[in-house]
Amino acid sequence: MLSRIGTIELAEGLPHPLINGVWHKQSPETGRAYMIADFDESNIDTLLNYAKQAELMSVYHESPFQSWGHFVLHPASFPNGNAGMKVCVDKASKKGFV
Prior knowledge:
By secondary structure, the protein is of the alpha+beta class.
């Protein structure tokens, strides 16, 4: 069934996200454990190191936004706004997190 759904997504031009070249619905990576933590610009390195040591898939921030409608980041956690979040994401990417 999943293969058929994937075929329809592609045929209809719908989003079809991949993880390491495999459709996310069929990727073994999606079942891996991850850390839920309120990371910010000042603690991201520490949390990424803990996640790496535990062989977790990623670090997930449960509520980084002041507003989900406009996706404005909390300034206490991300004083540099989107640029600060990008620094965190770039650091995670360099460590091999998805």
